[in-house]
Amino acid sequence: MRLYSKASSQFRWLFLWRKRMNEMVQPQLLFDYTGHLPECPTWDAQEQALYWADILEQEIHRYQPQSGEHRVWQFPEEVGCFALREKGGFIVALRSGIWLADERGILGQKVCDNPNNPALARFNDGGTDHDGRFYAGTFWAPGDYKGALLVRVDVDLSAHVIQSDIHGANGLAFSPDKRWMYTSDTPKGVIYRTPLDELGEPGKREIFKTFGEGEGIPDGAALDVEGCYWTAMYDGHRIARFSPDGEQLEEYRLPVRCPTMVCFGGPEMKTIYITSTRENMDLEELARFPLSGALFTLEVSVAGLPKPRFKG
Prior knowledge:
Blueprint: H1 6-24, E1 28-29, E2 38-44, E3 49-54, E4 59-64, E5 69-74, E6 79-84, E7 90-94, E8 97-101, E9 107-113, E10 121-128, E11 134-140, E12 148-153, E13 159-166, E14 169-174, E15 180-185, E16 190-195, E17 206-210, E18 217-223, E19 229-234, E20 238-242, E21 248-253, E22 259-265, E23 271-276, H2 283-288, E24 296-299
Antiparallel strand pairs: 1-24, 2-3, 3-4, 4-5, 6-7, 7-8, 8-9, 10-11, 11-12, 12-13, 14-15, 15-16, 16-17, 18-19, 19-20, 20-21, 22-23, 23-24
GO biological process, one term: L-ascorbic acid biosynthetic process
GO molecular function, one term: calcium ion binding
Domain SMP-30/Gluconolactonase/LRE-like region: 37-277
């Protein structure tokens, strides 16, 4: 006979309950929209609205679920990632550099140039940490070596390269206790975590989780209040949730092959918004997965962490 402590029995009960709930809950289409390469979903609690970028269409979108209002800002270059600002408007990582933009999407001050060669590497995944600093990673297009970088913009608008040895920067998220920064290198199929000191400065990066053939590869991500890591599994038809120890706890299947990123939102922060892509898909695949490029929602039982606005 196997004995369980009270705590382990409660955890096992919670795990089985959530598993049964997962089997009942399925992702739903957000609204009638199909993009090219939607990424960087960002929930604004003040407006109760969802923002996201379409990288290849050079756009930022805003959708308010309650009213159904859909607004689009056009930019002169690919929008790799962005964050909302405390003072209004955006901080935007375009191909050639990072800019501040106002509420109309008009570029103002240039914060810094792309530290990579912009002809070979555009900005990709990014967001803010708990202190309102902005991070933006690049994607090394040639793929001949890991030449991408992760850049941090502090509140004084100074920019710093904090990590290298990356092929495609993705999966940025920060733990609730501020001790860990998570990132992924999508083409390499690996999630990393990096310890942070009391000032938020990074230590030595370590491997958190690797993936094999057929599992999909980790793309954009978010963390929940229990410290669990949710990631879109590109080429995997699913999103998945991992414990702080790297154990897969939950997964949800999607009607698309390539989800790109997740974020939490909604009035209680228990709605997951999921972006997906149709980049480089031929007509045959689009006929099989016509919702590729759409946005989905998923109601879950645990709340997520909000994305702070950029304080610069």
